[in-house]
Design brief:
Chain lengths: 253, 303
């Protein structure tokens, strides 16, 4: 394994978003806090989702997850597409890095960006809204797994996209709807039965539900089920990525 | 011992209905300065990109320093440095950061590597631009950055894909001096594609001509030039052309004529024809075959 090579690519990908921190971290944090400010107040009368949990507290883990997912996706997808369009992807393709190493570095950097953005929102939730948690282990596990899943989806989108239009389509027609319909703002038990059933087909739902379990030890489905679905989805998306990278689809012509 | 720097065996590449490479068998010896010539779209860049793993072959095999570029890609990529034809931008990092990153992808770091990066920057006159991002550089400087990037991991084989396209004369001379130094002092195998045939003629010892995805010739420069059976004689003067000279007229010039005669024709015979023709001549120049003539003849024969 080319360990130093992977580390270098990972560091490069992290430094890339770190060098434009206002755009990559501060802006999504501010947007998410606006969601919290508006929905936290407007919807607090809407009833309690989990027993003994205030709506604002219920909402914060959902918003953390939403920001984490959107930013993990944005990191790997835009970095890869930008590298393709500027041509500098050639430098990486000429290097002795395997498809797995390429995948690892891109997804790990996406996880870092997701965790940084999610972490800042978590801090605000804790310090300003008094958010507490029951199990740090489940929280960290689901944050890591979910960021990896969405980072890998971002990589997939980056591989397949030829222009920003393609990426925007992937983001607006797949990632955003799946995120909004994953229970970020509500418990699916408040939905009509058909929508509840549909929500169970959405892999993002299990990520949000499992993550929220770490805060309240309450969830819409058993946390073990969420863990199995999230892990399975990660394996599936990773497998597709590795297959595309090995074949060189849209990268090595 | 394997004396081939690069071996192409039955290399074929198809894009949809178009065969870009139609079965290339070619060996590039270690330590050679090798020219790959061809018109636009002949398949030169496809061949080079396949060597670098940027293009997947439809069939066939390529080995760089004995390493298969698909099965043993780590070793083959370590052995190969490629200067791509297209200029590349990287908006987030400075020139030195790019070179450090590129070293890292190859697992290289430490003081020795930093010293090599400094040496490359100095040798390519980029020291004062080390902390500048590539989009702030001129085209010629970007070209030099690409050369530094290709050399940063100490490859044994260097590929220059039309490196002097759009580069001014002074820089072109510098690049060729540097390439010759790498070849002569470091024993590097250099593969060059260029549109400037005089460059290939001046620098390269072995030449391949590729046309419509197939090889037309792979020869030492001397034997390739010997394939052209003519020499050109430029005569400056006035008068009316007749006799045997008119059979060998190649083109009429403003102040004279150009004749194309067999290489074997003795100059005394030619001068005798000139004397008997009654032409008023003031100057005579003989041009031996050059690569351009050979190239044009070979590619026109199969066009």
């Amino acid at each position: 394994m080319n360990g130093w090579g992977v580390w270098t690519l990972f560091v490069k990908e992290v430094r890339r978003f770190w060098s434009v921190l206002v755009q990559t971290v501060l802006a999504p944090v501010v947007t998410t806090l606006l969601y919290l400010l508006v929905f936290g107040h407007v919807l607090q009368e809407g009833g309690v989702a989990f027993a003994g949990v205030a709506y604002a507290h219920f909402l914060i883990p959902g918003l953390i997850m939403m920001a984490l997912m959107q930013n993990a996706f944005a990191n790997s997808s835009s970095s890869l597409l930008q590298s393709k369009m500027h041509g500098n992807l050639t430098f990486i393709l000429l290097a002795p890095l395997s498809p797995w190493e390429f995948y690892l570095a891109f997804v790990a950097a996406a996880v870092v960006r997701g965790l940084v953005v999610g972490g800042v929102i978590f801090l605000v939730g804790w310090l300003v809204y008094g958010l507490t948690w029951q199990s740090a282990g489940w929280i960290i596990l689901f944050a890591l797994l979910s960021a990896a899943v969405i980072g890998a989806l971002g990589l997939l989108a980056g591989i397949l996209a030829d222009k920003y239009d393609h990426l925007a389509a992937f983001q607006n027609f797949i990632i955003v709807p799946l995120t909004f319909l994953s229970g970020v703002f509500y418990s699916i038990h408040r939905l009509p039965e058909a929508w509840q059933w549909a929500s169970h087909l959405n892999p993002f739902f299990y990520m949000v539900d499992g993550f929220r379990y770490g805060f309240f030890l309450q969830s819409d489905v058993a946390v073990e089920v969420s863990l199995a679905v999230t892990s399975g989805f990660l394996l599936f998306v990773s497998g597709v990525n590795l297959w595309l990278l090995t074949k060189g689809v849209k990268i090595r012509h | 011992m394997n004396r081939a720097a690069v071996e192409f065996c039955g290399v074929r590449k198809r894009y949809g209905e178009l065969w870009a490479l139609r079965g290339i068998d070619l060996t590039i010896p270690q330590g050679s300065f090798f020219a790959l010539l061809g018109h636009n779209g002949a398949g030169k860049s496809t061949l080079i990109n396949a060597m670098a793993g940027l293009v997947r072959l439809t069939s066939g095999q390529i080995r760089v320093m004995g390493h298969d570029v698909v099965r043993d890609y780590r070793a083959s990529r370590r052995a190969l440095g490629v200067v791509p034809q297209e200029l590349i931008d990287e908006p987030f990092f400075s020139v030195r950061q790019l070179l450090t990153l590129q070293s890292g992808y190859f697992g290289l770091r430490g003081r020795q590597q930093a010293a090599w990066i400094d040496e490359l920057l100095a040798r390519l006159s980029l020291s004062d631009k080390a902390d500048v991002k590539t989009h702030q550089l001129s085209g010629g400087m970007k070209r030099r950055v690409l050369i530094a990037m290709a050399l940063v991991h100490h490859p044994q084989v260097l590929v220059l894909d039309e490196p002097t396209a759009g580069v001014d004369v002074g820089l072109r001379q510098n690049l060729w001096a540097f390439a010759q130094e790498l070849h002569q002092k470091r024993g590097m195998t250099i593969i060059l594609t260029t549109h400037y045939l005089d460059e290939a003629e001046a620098l390269c010892d072995r030449i391949a001509i590729i046309h419509k995805g197939a090889l037309l010739a792979v020869e030492d420069k001397a034997s390739l030039l010997a394939r052209y059976p003519w020499k050109h004689i430029e005569l400056t003067g006035t008068g009316t052309l007749h006799g045997p000279l008119s059979d060998y007229l190649f083109s009429r010039q403003a102040q004279g004529w150009v004749f194309r005669v067999p290489r074997s024709l003795p100059m005394a015979q030619f001068l005798a024809w000139v004397e008997t023709s009654g032409l008023q001549w003031v100057d005579l120049k003989v041009r031996e075959a050059d690569l351009e003539q050979v190239f044009m003849q070979l590619t026109e024969e199969v066009a």
